[in-house]
Amino acid sequence: MLTQQEKQAGYSLALLDALALVLAFTCAFVVRLVFEIPFASEGEPPLAAHIWSLLLSVPIFWVLASSAGLYRRTRPKSKRRLLWATIRPVAYMGLIVGTAVFLFQADTYSRTIFFAYIALSLVFVTGVRMLVRAFPAGSERDAEQNRRVLIVGAGLEGVAIARRLSSHEQPAYHLIGHLVEERVGAEIVTGASVVGGLSELKVIVEEEVVDDVIFAVPFAALPDCRPQIAWCEEVGVTVHLSLDFMGTLMAKTYPTNWDGIPMLTLSTTPQDAIALLFKRIVDIGGSAFGLLVASPVMIACALLIRITSPGPVLFRQQRVGLNGRTFQLYKFRSMYRDAERRQAELQEMNEMSGPVFKIRRDPRVTPVGRLLRKFSIDELPQLWNVLRGDMSLVGPRPPVPQEVRQYERWQRRRLSMKPGLTCLWQINGRNKVGFDEWMKLDLAYIDNWSIKLDIIILLRTLPAVLLTRGAH
């Protein structure tokens, strides 16, 4: 939905605020130790006597900051207003927590810790806000991740939506343009950026990155758009209707609004902002931990590859990610340098159906590469792709562009979720599974996604890798 990025940005800020409060609380203890100030009660464990105030202050601050608009897109932009908007929630939080300390633990709670905690909270929370303001979502890389929106209809309603899309100081959406058709967009408002007709929708979605298609058309014209809506559902592009309800094939329907405009959103992908944020947190933590733990193995692999065959240690290849975004995927090189040139010669030996090319005893694979592939060690550098945000720990494997060009319409929907290191295909036999069944497993993952399913897949991936099930 169009508010998805806004929700995740708000949840991310709330998480940063909580971390700032935890850091302030920890530093308050350090301040007491530096100045060697004794506790009021020597028999009371310091942490047990004070930790409750942190647990109380975090949700209180969240409520106060939310009421002050600090988690909304329209939060204050100027430094002075942002500073004042941040000081008030911290001050009120200190007042509430201070009252609780006075009423319940006045004799055992260190005043030094309390005042240091409130002062440091103001410094760290304000620092978080200033850092977010100094590095807005307007960098070149973040701009590439903005939701790319196509609007069907160039009438008053369509143009009003377009204007709101571009009205924010830090827009989270990139407007591709408007599509019109004689019966749909008879009334075209001056200034609308028309990029084609309704019949060109499929071509634009297939050739460009399109995350959302908004149908802002008169109610009487909506039935004429039904084939295009169904097609968007099938390929995994999120659809928004600014008018009435319409039956769907497989997408879930969400009543939403964007800047006060009521809409009906049809999406075949997960829309739970909290769960998706948690998935990203797990991706960051898991990939960072994995890179740290696996670093000795990766160094040894790099040396083996360098010693045993000429060529670079890492193999870089363009892959297709979320909704058609391309990125550079990293792997340990497991083939000889002329592998891609020799693929055409070996095409008749392909053992996989569909556009995928795989051979059990591929002559292009080096001896060291065969060992790396057997235990999926060659894919360890992709943890960097996960850390960067190009991939996730769990998700459909990222295809190469030439494979995507050969997809059937229903297979393209697997691009509607961020690709991953492992998925249902990996734990169900990998190369023993046919291409169509592979695609169906990926779509089943998208349709049934949950944090629990990700955990199950991760737990089942390790034995699948160690037992080399379906590995070539």
Task: Walk me through this protein's architecture.
The protein has helices spanning 4-34, 46-67, 79-104, 111-134, 140-144, 156-165, 201-207, 226-235, 273-308, 339-342, 367-374, 382-388, 401-404, 435-447, 451-466, and strands spanning 147-152, 173-180, 194-197, 212-215, 238-241, 252-258, 261-267, 314-320, 326-332, 392-394, 420-422. By secondary structure, it is an alpha/beta fold. The longest helix has 36 residues, at 273-308. The protein has a seven-stranded mixed beta sheet with strand order 3-2-1-4-5-7-6, with helices on both faces. The protein folds into three domains: 4-134, no CATH class; 140-267, Rossmann fold (3-Layer(aba) Sandwich), CATH 3.40.50; 273-466, no CATH class. The two termini are 40 Å apart. It contains 15 helices and eleven strands. 47% of the residues lie in helices and 13% in strands. Strand 1, helix 6 (156-165) and strand 2 form a beta-alpha-beta unit. The model is unreliable at 39-45 and 137-141 (pLDDT under 50). Helix 1 (4-34) runs antiparallel to helix 4 (111-134).
